[in-house]
């Protein structure tokens, strides 16, 4: 049944020829009254998975979405297609709200968008009792996860929908796909009988590149000038202050850039967002407050000037590039200071030790991605439980980093930390340790008599940048740690194996020449074949779980960060 009708609605109402990926299966399942949990990458086309059932099934589809700022846009877009849609949230004035309510109660709405906090109020619940509901859609369902940075406490209430309306099917959708988040969503929303639709998370048209931070503004400017002239893109920064500074810097250099962060007033934010969506070739410089639910198909690059807190976050943010399937760049510049800063944030974060441990594990996985000598995509997909071969369209594939035996360098660095600590009961940050190794008689070195240490000057065979890379990688491999407000270096248990000469340390040498644009286009073309999608069978899920457990155990043995 539903199949022909769904296709007919796709063509007549939305004007598309064919379904993408698993859309058709999902839509038919939901039209038939089944519950569904949909994991599909950003830009995969999740909205149609509930919008078409909303049109085919009797009654109104109630859509829960955290994106209040976008509800108006979504409803306008649907209305333009002749779909009867409305929304209720805090931005609505009394009269408009009454009008939408009357439409809903009168059975004149196909879709009603609600903010999650609205569902916590008894007036909204009374309203819902008075209409006829054909479907519940829970968009951005990862907001129920307490680990993610998008956590919304009101999402925890949503399990009550099923208790109050046991016969109404539910569909939950998200682009966040680690096994842990996936399970957490199913549990917290009480989706016990839901069918799980898991699409491949590969985005073959996105080229992943991670470079060592030297002069990040210059590096960004080079990227934009040489490869992304006149392109629309997003530049992510950690703080509001750096958003402002980078936006100004780009403007000063002739690149049209707009700032976006939570400290700007609502009006400016809305203006900048709508200019970014409607005009061509604008660069949005933003904190992670920007981007969720934004549907702009031709974002050609996403650049990160600060290290994301987790692979999930990185994947979500980079996923905003290239929704149109054309070649796009995900570029991240990261340095030692990022690691120090992130550790500091974790140490100072609220919550108990377990929470901090969780954050630290997320950061470790992100560091491992940054410092890998393997294909970035293989690592990234493995993190989401997918296996794949080298992609040919990431920096490590295009310009494989050499690895070198860094055992001696690691021993020099670790013994500097050891000597400062054991012989002098002192702890210092990376800068001082590097000065000691290089044999630089800075004021601070002289003041602390560090030129009298036996390790003074033993590292003059490497450059400062090399030492920074050594330290970053030792941190990523768990052979060194940073602590405290000043990011002082401290040894880990595993450091002892290196110092005791029981362990070889292989390090990554940065490629001399960065990946070029010409290579990019060619490879992206070769890989433009549609990415495969697959619903995981219980056997496959179990296999992935076993692999993950094995990886974690091995990682522990080798004391490298586990996923
Ligand atoms: P998601 O919510 O998964 O990030 P959206 O639902 O916003 O993705 O869809 C992303 C884009 O893909 C939209 O512009 C949408 O109109 C388009 N799209 C979705 N399904 C199809 C389809 N079957 N054919 C063509 N375009 C589609
Ligand atoms: Mg969406
Ligand atoms: Zn690759």
Main attributes?
563 residues; alpha/beta; 6-stranded parallel sheet; 17 strands; 14% strand; elongated; disordered C terminus; binds adenosine-5'-diphosphate; binds magnesium ion; binds zinc ion
Task: Describe the protein.
- The chain is an alpha/beta fold.
- It has 23 helices and 17 strands.
- It has helices spanning 2-12, 23-31, 47-56, 68-80, 94-105, 122-130, 160-164, 179-188, 216-227, 240-252, 266-278, 311-318, 336-347, 353-370, 376-383, 395-398, 407-424, 430-438, 443-447, 464-476, 495-499, 517-526, 538-558; strands at residues 36-39, 60-64, 85-88, 111-114, 133-138, 170-174, 195-198, 206-212, 232-236, 257-260, 283-286, 299-304, 328-334, 402-405, 480-483, 488-491, 506-509.
- A seven-stranded parallel beta sheet has the order 3-4-2-5-6-1-7, sandwiched between helices. The chain has a six-stranded parallel beta sheet with strand order 8-13-12-9-11-10, sandwiched between helices. Strands 14-17 form a two-stranded antiparallel ribbon.
- Strand 10, helix 11 (266-278) and strand 11 (283-286) form a beta-alpha-beta unit.
- The longest helix is centred in the last third of the chain and has 21 residues, at 538-558.
- Residues 520-563 have low confidence and may be disordered.
- Bound molecules: adenosine-5'-diphosphate (ADP), magnesium ion (MG) and zinc ion.
- Adenosine-5'-diphosphate binds next to helix 3.
- Residues 216-367 form the Helicase C-terminal domain.
- Belongs to the helicase family. RecQ subfamily.
